Amino acid sequence: MKERIETLDTFPKLLMHHARVRPQRPAIREKDLGIWQTWTWHEFAEEVRAIAAALAALGLKRGEHFALVGDNRPRLYATMAAGQCLGAIPVPLYQDAVAAEMAFPIQNAGIAVAFAEDQEQVDKLLEIAPQCASLTRIVYDDPRGLRHYAKDKLVAYDDLLGQGRERLKANPALIDDEIAKGAGADTAAMFFTSGTTGVAKGVVHTHTSLIGPSRTAAELERLGDADVVLAYLPPAWIGQNIFSVAQAYVTGYCICCPEAAETVMTDMREIGPTYYFAPPRVLENLLTQVSIRMEDASRVKRWLYRSFMGVAQRVGGAILDGKRVSLADRLLYAIGDVLVYGPLRNVLGMSRVKVGYTAGEAIGPDLFKFYRSIGINLKQLYGSTETAVFVCIQPDGQVKPDTVGPAVPGVELKFTPERELVVRGPGLFREYYKNPQATAEVKDRDGWFHTGDAGYFDADGHVKIIDRVKDVGRLANGTLFAPKYLENKLKFFPYIREAVCFGHERDRVCAFINIDPEAVGNWAEKRNMPYSGYTDLASRPEVHDLVRECIERVNADLAAEPEIANSQIHRFLILHKELDADDGELTRTRKVRRGYIAEKYAPLIDALYAGRDSVHVQAQVKYEDGRTGTFSADLHIENARTFPPAAAERAA
Amino acid sequence: MILAVEGVSLSFGGVRALQDVSFDVKEHEIRAIIGPNGAGKSSMLNVLNGVYRPQKGKIAFRGREFRGMDPRRAASLGIARTFQNIALFKGMSVLDNVMSGRNLKMRCNFLQQALWLGPAKREELEHRRAAEEIIDFLEIQHIRRTPVGRLPYGLQKRVELARALAAEPVVLLLDEPMAGMNLEEKQDMCRFVLHVNDHYGTTIVLIEHDMGVVMDISNRVVVLDYGRKIADGTPGEVRRDQKVIDAYLGVARA
Questions:
Q1: Is 0.90 topped by the overall pTM?
Q2: What distance in Å separates the CA atoms of residue A532 and residue A524, rounded to the nearest whole number?
Q3: CATH of domain B1-78+169-254
Q4: Which of A373, A609, B101, B131 could bridge to B163 as Cys pair (CB 3.0-4.6 Å)?
C-alpha cells in the first residue's frame, strides 16, 4: 500500500485512494450549529465527484483557472478538489481582501468561475465583476442574504451538488476518466503572493512540487492518518494549503474547520490537534492572553505559576530535547506538569500536539522557549510560497531558538556572497504566472531560487536568518543594523504589538511603536485609568513611561551583544493608529511593509531625528465601511536611556 | 393586516401617554414608531404586547380583536419583544438565554425533564438546534458559553434579539434596538434586522430614536408626539412632513 500511494502523482488520485483505503476515517470536520460534523474520506470524495461533474457542466475546463474566496470550509476544499479533478487550477484568494485587491488575480488568470463562501464574498466579486469580463459564474455556499440577488451569475452550491449527482448517475465514470488524465507535472494550484513589494504575483505550483515536499516532511515528523489539524489560517496562504490539503492528501489525516474566526481558541480546545502550525504572531497573542489572565489570578496561583515557570525555563527545554537533567529537577518538573504546564497546555488547546511549527517571521527566543518549556514540541520551519514551504525544519532534539534548522532532505542550500540564501529542491515553483521577467529575477539559470533572506550557517550547519537582504542596513558609523531583530525583541513585551525601527544610514536608531490595546487596556484598568480607545491610550504619559521601560530593557540587552550594541533605540513615538493591512501598512500575513510606512510617515521620522519633542499628525483614516475621514493630533516623542556596552549588567 | 391599533388611549393618572392613536401593521413589513423623548413610543409598544392595558381603544391581531392584550397571550400569539434597557439573565450564558426564549414551546412536563426521559431529551435537542440556528444567524457563536453580564452592550443587544427570535415570533417588537451603539454596531444591527425580516419573514415593529436608521430600513413610519399620532407614511413622506420637522427640531409653541 505504501508503494502504491507513492506512485500517485496528483491530488485527485490521492483523494480517491483514501476514499478506497480508509473510507470510514474522518477526512474533514466542521463545527456547525455548535456540533462537529464529520465528512469521511468516502463522503468527501463523493461530494468532490459530484461537484466536479457539475463544474464540468458549468464549463470549467482543463488548464483553466478558478477562484476560491472564503474561510476554511469543507465545501471550499471540496470545490478546490473538484476543479483539480477536471484539471482546472484553483486560485485561492484572501477572504479578508477588499474587492479591489481581488480584481488583479481574476483578470490576470482570466478566471471565469469563482467559489464564494457567503454574501460578503459574493458582494465583493459582484463589485469587481464589471472590470473582470471573464468572470461569468459565482458559486456560493451560504445562501443567507442572497435571496433577492439577480441570479444571472450566481449558482448555489446546493444546486450544483444536486446537478452533479444527477450527471454522475447518467455517467458514473465521468470524473474518474478526467482524474486519470491528470499528471504530476500539471499545474496543481496558483497562489498569489501578498506582495510585500509591488503587485501580487501568481506562484504556479505543480502537483509534484506540492506533493513531494509535503510527503518528505510528513515522513520526517511521522505523520499518519490518526493525526488531526485545525485549519484556521487563510486558505489563500500556501502554508494552510500544505497543512490542510497537500499533507492531508499525502497522509490521510483529518482537518478541522473552526466555526468562526472568533471561536478558534475554543474549537482548538475541543479538537485537540496533534499537528499544529501557528505564525509567531498567533503564539504571541496566546501568550499575551495567558499573561493577562495570570495577572488577574489569585495570589497563590500567581505564585505557583511564577515558581514553576522558573523551573520550566531552566529545564523544560532540555527535558523535551532528551538531554540529561538531574533527578531532582525532573521531579520538580513533573510536579509542575501536573499543577501548571498540563493545565496550561490544555487551556491553549495543545495537550495533544505532537509537532507544532512556527514560521513566517523570526520568533522571539523567549516566546519560543516559553512553549517548549511547558512541553509543547514547537519547532521552527523555513520556507516560502515559492518553495512549497518546506526548506528547513528543525529535527527533534536539535531545536534552537535562533536558527531554523538544517535543510529538509532533498533540498540544497547555499548563501551568496551578499549573504542571501538560495534554494534548489523538488518544491520549487514553476514560474510566476505570465511574468517571465519576475521569474527570471528570482530563479537563476541553474534553478536556484533567491529567497531574499539574509543569514548564514551556524556551527551545526543550521540556517540562521537575520532579516530580509534588502532590509539589513548599516548605521552611519558602519555597524550592522537589522531592524527586524530589534522589532522582534520589542514585540516580545505584551504591551507592544508592533514596532518599526529606523536606522539605516542614520547616526542612531529610532522606533515607531504600536501598543497592544488589549494588554495596555488591561494594565490601564488595573490603575483605574479611564480611556476611550487605542488613540487615547497611546497618548497617555503613563503609557509612554511603560513603553520606555520596555525599550530600555531591550537597550540593556542589546548593550550586551557587541555586534549590535550600536543599534540601541534612542528615541521613539507611539503611533496614533494601529498599523493595518487595510491601509497597506501590513501585508495580509501581517508583516510590516517598511518602505511604505517610511514613506507614509516621513514627517514623523524627520521629527524623530530632528530632536523635536512632539510632532503634529494629520492622517487620513479609512473606516471599515469604506468611508474616509481625517484625524489630527500631536504625538509626543520620547527619549529612551541607552547603555554603554560595559554598563549592561548593571542596568539589566 | 397583521396588527391593527384603533383609537388607543392610555393615561397614568393625569399623564396622557397615548391619545386616540390608530395605525396598522402589514404582514412582513418593517414598521417604525418614532418620536421625540416622551412621545409615548415605549408605552405604545407596551400596549401592543399587553404590559399596559389601554383605557380606550382596541387591538386586533390577524382580525381577532382584543380589548387589551396580556403579555402571556401576546407571547403565545407570536409577539416577541426586546427591551430598551436590556432584560437578559445576566448570570446565565448566551446559549441559556436564547434557550429561555423557547420556553413557551416546551411541551414536556417538569417530571419528564427532571428525569431526562426520552421525549424530554428529544425535545431538548430540537430546541437546542433551533437555538443554535439563531446563534449562527446572528453570528454570536464565539460567545455561546459566555455569561451575558460580561458582554459589551452592543453584543447584549444582539443576544436579546436572539432570545426574542428563539420564540419564532410572527411579530417582533424592538424597543430602541440601536440605542447607545456606535456606528459599526448600528450597521450590524440594521443588517440583522433586515436579515431577520427577509429570512424568517418576521413582521417587525421597531421604536427608534435615530432617524437615519429608521429611514433606511423601515417600510412605513408612525410619528408620535406628546402621545398623539402626527404622521404616518413611508419614510420619504414622513421626512417631508412639516409637523414632523417641527416636532423634531422644535418650534415656539404658543
A1: no
A2: 11
A3: 3.40.50.300
A4: B101
